[in-house]
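Possible regression after last week's pipeline update?

I re-ran a chain I had predicted before the update to compare outputs. Posting the input and the new output here so someone can diff against the archived version. Not blocking, just want to make sure nothing changed silently.
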Amino acid sequence: MSQTPHPEHRYVIALLENDSRLIREIYNRYAARIEQFVCANSGTPEDARDVFQEALLAITRQARDQGMVLTCPFEAYLYLVCRGKWLNELKRRKRAGVTIRETERFKDVAEADALADATLYEDERNRLFWHFFNMLPESCRTLIKLSWSELSMQEVAEHLGYTYAYARKRKSECLAQLTAWIQASPAYKALKR
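New output (post-update):
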């Protein structure tokens, strides 16, 4: 079942295509509102800029990797993604929660909320994965990255000077360590809820 894109899906396409004119329009139309929200909720203008940038990156990844189609107004979706990212940041900082509920002014909040939740979930999974991936020894990271490339496992082994059997065994050990770290993480347990 195909979803009908909202007319403002053009902003998502602009992010995917790095259309500087429309991206500038996104900043001009929405950045001040996000700054106002973050600053009213224990943040600074710098925090707001970071949240806004991270939200745009998360939206871009969601569209590119998950094929997300915007079916609601962009402003509501962007606001909810920024709000969720700021809530997550406040939790990390162990600060007071968000005190403002502004979503009532948006139409199609249910759709925007569902899209924002999916984007935030994928973004948090991605952040968690890379956090632990970067803790692996360099040899593991290199082996895993090469195995994700177009090289066969035999070619990966040859490239690294390993036997095929050792490369497979080592990759399995590295992935097992990565999985164990992720699954033991409180952030992973929170994502599963």
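Follow-up from reviewer: compared with the archived run. Residues 77 and 114 are 9 Å apart (CA to CA). Marking as no regression found.
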